[in-house]
Amino acid sequence: MSDNLEMLVENFGAYVKAIIVNKIGGIASYEDIEDCISDVFLEICKNPESLPESEKETKYYINSIAKRRAVDYFRRITYRENNCSGNADDLFAVSDNTNVEDITHKKALNTALWNAVQSLGEPDTSIIVYRYFYRRKAREIGKILNLTPAAVHKRAQRAEKKIKEILVSQGFDE
User: What pTM was computed for the model?
Assistant: First the structure.
C-alpha cells in the first residue's frame, strides 16, 4: 500500500491541497491544513478496496473525501474559536441567563441534522452542504457537480423534505 500511497500523494497531493486551502484556508492555520490533507490520505489508506480503478473516478472519490474532511475541520476550527476564547475561569462559568436545557437541545438538533445530511448520499449531501454551508447558488453547485440548476433545485427540495422527515422521526418536530 505504501507504493500506492506514494503514487496517490504524488498524483493528487496538490489537488487535495488546493481543495483544502480553498475551503478552509481563510480560517485555518498551516498546521490545520496539513493535518486535514494528511487525514484525507489516511482515510483513503483505511479503505484501499474502495479506491476506484480509473483515474477520473479516483479524482472524484478523492474530491469527495477532501471536501468532507474540510467541512469537518471547518466545524472543528469554528467550534474551537467560538468556545475556547477567553480565560480559563470563563470556560467553566455558566451565566445566569443561560438555559442549559436549550443549549443541550440545540446541540442534539445540530448533531441530528448533520447526521441526516450525511445519510442522504451523493450528490444530495454535497448539494445541501454547498447550498447552506457555503451559500452557493444552484448554478454554481450545478457546475461543481455537473448538474443542471433545475436538477440542483429539485434534489435540494427532496433532500430538505427527507431531512425534515428524519428529524421528525427522531423527535425534533420544531
Answer: 0.48
